[in-house]
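Researcher: I'd like a structural prediction for the single chain below. Treat it as a standalone chain; there are no partners to consider.
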Amino acid sequence: MSIGSHEVDGPTVALHTLCVHPGWRAKGLGTKILQEYIKRAADQKGVERIALIAHDELVPFYERYL
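Model: Treating it as a single chain, here is the predicted structure.
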C-alpha cells in the first residue's frame, strides 16, 4: 500500500527521533529502547533496513549498533 510517496509495506523502517528525558540519560535507557526497536523491526516480515535521521552529534551513539 502507498500513501503519497510513503510505502506502508516497504522494506525500509525509518527512525526519526529517539528522545530520552535529560533526567533519565546515561542510565542505558536509550540503548535498551534502540535495541528493542531494532529487534522488533527485524521480526517484521519484509523489513530489510532501518533508516535513521539524526543530528550529527548523535551519530556515534547510533553507530555502535551497526
